[in-house]
Design brief:
The chain is of the alpha+beta class. It has four helices and four strands. It has two domains: 70 residues, no CATH class; 41 residues, no CATH class. The termini are far apart.
């Protein structure tokens, strides 16, 4: 049986991180549908599960790889945004955070220094803020 499945999967895409995410999301939607009796979550869960299997058994490997790459980029940008928020929250007592009025670069300055002149390292713009 294992060998038959192995032969069936030759030339097909298989599982990747987007498929894992889709399966977990479909399972979560189905559980919410069972608890809340809201039919939209049931159909959404089935659609996600169907799409996951469609991707897994697809022979268009280049398209599935591109989808996984886009998912990975979105996940990376979300992770970096969350990590930047965590670091800003952790340093909120020691530092103030400002955005450069010219290029919108995020700048970190120490608290308790009074009015200081801040120089943006990206564009060289200088502005005065209270720390």
């Amino acid at each position: 049986m294992k060998e038959k499945f192995r032969r069936f999967m030759i030339g097909r895409y298989g599982a990747d991180s987007l498929n894992q995410f889709l399966c977990v999301a479909s399972l979560a939607c189905l559980v919410v549908a069972m608890i809340s009796k809201f039919q939209l979550f049931y159909y959404l869960g089935l659609a996600l599960l169907f799409y996951s299997y469609f991707r897994m058994f697809s022979r268009n490997i280049s398209a599935r790889t591109a989808e996984n790459y886009k998912f990975y980029n979105m996940k990376q940008s979300l992770d970096s945004w969350i990590n930047s928020r965590k670091s800003r929250w952790a340093g909120r007592k020691q530092y103030r955070y400002y955005a450069c009025p010219q290029c919108r670069q995020k700048l970190r300055v120490p608290r308790g220094r009074g009015r200081i002149q801040i120089s943006c390292p990206r564009c060289g713009n200088q502005f005065i803020k209270k720390s």
